[in-house]
Amino acid sequence: MRFARPSRPGCIFMYLLYLDDAGSAPNPTEDYLVLGGVCVFEAQAHYFTQQLDELAATIFPSDPHAVEFHASEIFARRREPWKSMTREEAQGVIKAVLTIFRDSYGSANAFACAIHKPSYPDLDPMELAFEELCNRFDLFLNRLRSEGDRHRGLIILDESAHETTLQRMARDFRTLGTRWGIVRNLAETPLFVDSRASRLVQLADHVAYSVFRRYNSGDANYFDPIASRFDSSEGVVHGLVHRHTLTSTCMCPPA
């Protein structure tokens, strides 16, 4: 496993948290919505892009940039190039994307929040999940500061109908605070990008999907390989949140 966490006195570095969602808030057939993704040091983004580009080249050699790794579409195999694959081949692509993350820098971390929608019928599950992850990302950066680093953070999400709401929420978190306190370490309001142009957002999509499959369908085939990569400190897992009030069991991995 690679490890790279630069630290030079007097220098301020940036950690990037790429997020995407899995599941649909209004879909009554799904019990969960998940917001999740990967936190990487700014200089590591090129590595992940390069690795995913190389994987895309094995799938569509003539135009690898035309390949978008979108986990639910790969799983469903409704469109090319996934439609021509067997189920095992398509699922192997999802696992290959997650393996790139699993085997990457030790300083790269996964974050995800699974919201049990029936537990919060009067609340927006996306807003709940976003507040949780803003707070946990801020706590992660606080831990680095306590070790003498001066890292700041930036959240990058796939373009969505939630853009205006989430930008407002992030701005309010820096001034009014979350229910846990003021968010102090974000350098800017979230950025929204086209997932087709960002391999890191595509990787975030796969992390979110792996968590969604684990909680919504009881399928841990994609979650288990990356379970150890969720942000943790001193034996406590901070990067994975399961919000529920009605379920009697919890599938979160033990700390």
- Uncertain segments are none
| Largest beta sheet: strand ordering | 5-4-1-2-3-8
**What fraction strand?**
15-25%
For the record, the count of structural domains works out to 1
Report the CATH architecture: 2-Layer Sandwich
Secondary-structure element order, as H and E?
Answer: EEHHHEHEHEHEEE
Question: What's the short version?
Answer:
The protein has 255 residues and is an alpha/beta fold. The chain is 36% helix and 18% strand.
Which tags fit this structure?
single chain; six-stranded mixed β-sheet; two-stranded antiparallel sheet; alpha/beta; 6 helices; 255 residues; Nucleotidyltransferase, domain 5; 18% strand; 36% helix; globular
